[in-house]
Amino acid sequence: MPLFSLIPHQYHLPMVRLTALLCTALTLPLAAQLGPAPTTQSIDPLAPPRQVITNPLNQPTVTPGQLLLLDLDLRFSKDVETRGGKAFRDWFALDGVVLNNGKAPVLGFRAITADTDWDPKTYQLTWTTEGAQMGPSNDMGFTWGRYVSHAKDKTGNPIDTAGRYITVWKKIEDGKWKVAMDASANDAPLAGSCCTLPKP
Description:
Nuclear Transport Factor 2, Chain: A; 2 domains
């Protein structure tokens, strides 16, 4: 005997809705385990597949640890955008390290302080986080993404750079999170712009 024949007629539609809701709820955890984001196929068959960049906060598998790191990185970026070099320095641990593209390492809070005295009115540094990963002990992790900077040289010509960064975070003794290391690499020059000499 069908199950619906045992249920009064006025309850059939609510039961169908309840069944659909239960099926949806039971399949969501499986959908979250389907794997990494899809890749786009390059026209060049020898080129490696390129990962599709999406907003990390929209991913169904973001863990609480990743959310914490993403929030830290966003607050770090907004603070630097507003207060400049002073804000950049303030986020570092005492034994922090800065590795900038083509420059010597900057080791320790005191050296970082001396190296980050820019005013946000004359030098703008912003970045967009693309991902985060928390370590198994939940006291260390990293974020990564893209950065853009804008400045002007002594003659007023714009100096714009962009590239990729990685920031390593660690929880210090008082429970606060600080930057243990920040590293960046500028994008490669555009084709044809590498060795062009100025015209006379």
